């Protein structure tokens, strides 16, 4: 059983409100594109694949109710543009918007408004299944690759942020690799970082691990290097919000320092991400726009201040790990690639952004 972050039945959408986890399990209705925009912006729903899926499903809900009238293409275009602006670093929403728009424009040449709505809804509904299938492949490729590099029976993985069922349609990416290792009986333990300032690790990854009986230990971000030295970490596996052509990878802030520490300790560092998180239109990580979040996310927890009032704050949500530090490889649903192999492996398989 994996946790269900997105509940979709034709015409209705609910998301598990991740702001309330782990203490309350509340599903919020998403009745419109604007509801989804707000849920994504406020991080009720988060994680690059989940953002794209919830954004598109909210559009399906509105289309099912007849939104767009005689001109659904304009409605779809404006909605996708709005959704893409909610969080700029993860590429998945932008990619889905581009692909969906292209599909809708093609369909509009031979279908009336009602038929167009139906086919766009079907395209969107298919995203859920595709994401879970891709994640299972990522899990399997990643587990096999990690196991092939070590002579041991069981492995210990360190991960960051939340990349599991809560961040995807199900199964997860980096956490999917952990899940696959666990399923094979080859996971000794997962270490998950707290992931300050938003605590996706302590609130969400820890929640998934406890719910599913995955052996896991929580550490603060500041304990990562020590954990690598003392706890016989086999590999570090993280997710991605955007992997660019040279393999540079934007992911939750703190990923970069994990990669540096892994290199120092000779521990393979992997990025696990579907090809939908890859962006070959950008040459290097310098071109990635990094979202800066409100200071309050750093200075308070659940409304309780934990910082000196008046202090200035810098709160970038993501950092970029240079490709040279991604020593294990980039695990996708198509296989595991070194950063230098990624562009050739994906060319022709991804629509241009
Ligand atoms: C499969 S989720 C991959 C990434 O989106 C994840 O590692 C991450 O950085 C999430 O950040 P968040 O700010 O919680 O959306």
From TrEMBL:
It catalyses: 5-(methylsulfanyl)-alpha-D-ribose 1-phosphate = 5-(methylsulfanyl)-D-ribulose 1-phosphate. The active site is at residue 241. The keyword Cytoplasm applies. GO terms for molecular function: S-methyl-5-thioribose-1-phosphate isomerase activity. It comes from the Eukaryota. Pathway: Amino-acid biosynthesis; L-methionine biosynthesis via salvage pathway; L-methionine from S-methyl-5-thio-alpha-D-ribose 1-phosphate: step 1/6. GO terms for cellular component: cytoplasm; nucleus. The record marks 161 as: Transition state stabilizer. Catalyzes the interconversion of methylthioribose-1-phosphate (MTR-1-P) into methylthioribulose-1-phosphate (MTRu-1-P). PANTHER family: METHYLTHIORIBOSE-1-PHOSPHATE ISOMERASE. Belongs to the eIF-2B alpha/beta/delta subunits family. MtnA subfamily. This is Methylthioribose-1-phosphate isomerase. The lineage of its organism: Eukaryota, Metazoa, Chordata, Craniata, Vertebrata.
């Amino acid at each position: 059983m994996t946790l269900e972050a997105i509940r979709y039945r034709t015409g209705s959408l609910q998301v598990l409100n991740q702001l309330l986890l782990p203490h309350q399990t509340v599903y919020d209705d998403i009745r419109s594109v604007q509801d989804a925009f707000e849920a994504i912006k406020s991080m009720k729903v988060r994680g690059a694949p989940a953002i794209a899926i919830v954004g598109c499903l909210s559009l399906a809900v509105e289309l099912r109710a007849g939104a767009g009238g005689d001109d659904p293409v304009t409605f779809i275009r404006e909605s996708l543009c709005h959704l893409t602006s909610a969080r700029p670093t993860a590429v998945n929403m932008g990619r889905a918007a581009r692909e969906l728009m292209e599909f809708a424009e093609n369909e509009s040449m031979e279908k009336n408004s009602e038929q167009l709505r139906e086919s766009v809804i079907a395209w969107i509904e298919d995203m859920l299944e595709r994401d879970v299938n891709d994640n299972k492949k990522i899990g399997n490729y990643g587990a096999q690759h990690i196991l092939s590099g070590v002579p041991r029976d069981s492995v210990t993985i360190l991960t960051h942020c939340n990349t599991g069922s809560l961040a995807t349609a199900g199964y997860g990416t980096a956490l999917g690799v952990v899940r696959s290792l666990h399923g094979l009986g080859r996971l000794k333990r997962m270490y998950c970082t707290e992931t300050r300032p938003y605590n996706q690790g302590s609130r969400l990854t820890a929640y998934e691990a406890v719910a599913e009986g995955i052996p896991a230990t929580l550490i603060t971000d500041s304990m990562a290097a020590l954990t690598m030295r003392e706890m016989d970490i086999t590999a570090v596996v993280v997710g991605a919000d955007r992997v660019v052509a040279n393999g540079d990878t934007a992911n939750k802030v703190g990923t970069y320092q994990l990669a540096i520490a892994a290199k120092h300790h000779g521990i393979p560092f992997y990025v696990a991400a579907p090809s939908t998180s890859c962006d070959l239109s950008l040459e290097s990580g310098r071109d990635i726009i990094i979202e800066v979040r409100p200071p309050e996310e750093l200075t308070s927890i659940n409304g309780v201040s934990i910082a000196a009032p008046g202090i200035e704050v810098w709160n970038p949500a993501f950092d970029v790990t240079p490709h040279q530090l991604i020593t294990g490889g980039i695990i996708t649903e198509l296989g595991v690639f070194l950063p230098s192999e990624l562009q050739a492996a994906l060319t022709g398989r991804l629509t241009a952004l």
